[in-house]
Amino acid sequence: MARIALLSNPRSTGNRAQLPRIRSFCAQHPEIFHYEVEDVDQIETALRTIARVGPKVLVLNGGDGTVQATLTELYHSDMFNGAPPPVAVLPNGKTNLIALDLGATGDPIAALERVLEIAKGPLDEFIVTRELIALSHGTEGVGVDTRPVLGMFLGGAGLAETMLYCRNKIYPLGLPNWLSHTLTAMALMVSLLLGLRATFLPDRPAPVKVSLIRQGHVQGSFSLLIVTTLRKMLLNSRASMNDPKSALQLMVVDHTPMALARALLGGRMSRFEGKKVQGIHVGRGDEIRIEGDRSSVILDGELFQTGAGRPIVLRQTAPLPFLRLAA
Q1: Per residue in 191-248, pLDDT tens?
Q2: What is the CATH topology of the domain spanning 133-318?
Q3: Is 83 left (phi over 0), alpha (psi -120 to 50) or beta?
């Protein structure tokens, strides 16, 4: 039995430079079963092949789309007879939020070596469970009409517009990630502070209504809309997860400079829970609805939009096992 199955997407941005090193590493370690896909549509076939190998750990080496498509197939399919192997994610792509949450940072080869070391012994102390966000488009009063797409981090409202701005206008400049993110943050602050609207700045967020089922709603224009099941959040904080029945963490920040400053300086979502802070709305629940006219949200790198009478519905899933690399 292979200790590790490694699923790679050569077309992901991070793999353009790293994949030759990863291929060489795998060639030197026959206990790694390496499967490459050229498109996310091939992931279902890849997982069926990997299931026949029976690995102790499934390692994902690709961008956000690869990770999202793999998690979606793992959850909806029964390729592993109800017992999928724990998932590890190599640091790759632009943001690496899922990898960071699981303790994978820095060089992907070093992370792969760590996975291989862990896989030589019992896995129990390294296995953690994570609920996922199941995103569906709903029809008013009817429910959902498609197979849900699964992920772990959703950004909406101004955050989605900022992420799209960075992806479409800053990343193509070929700058280092840290500089790209710095320029994007500066453009966001100029737009927010001065109220400017221009093609070289992020678009202003469209008004949305965000509802926590049975807990009320907030409505307006927001700088940040975050829904996540990750323990480490975008603001480099750790969310309190004392209520396993409500794994969906929600943070909504009004589209004003002061509200955004409070959110950034506050750092931790848990710091705002149960408190009334002007311009900041934090909660948790097992179902969230986002309604608006063509308001964008991004779930683990994939873009979705609301429509008239067609809200986005988020529900939490049962947990899946993951491999934590940090001690």
Answers
A1: 877 666 777 788 888 889 999 877 788 889 898 899 988 876 544 444 444 444 457 8
A2: Tumour Suppressor Smad4 (2.60.200)
A3: beta
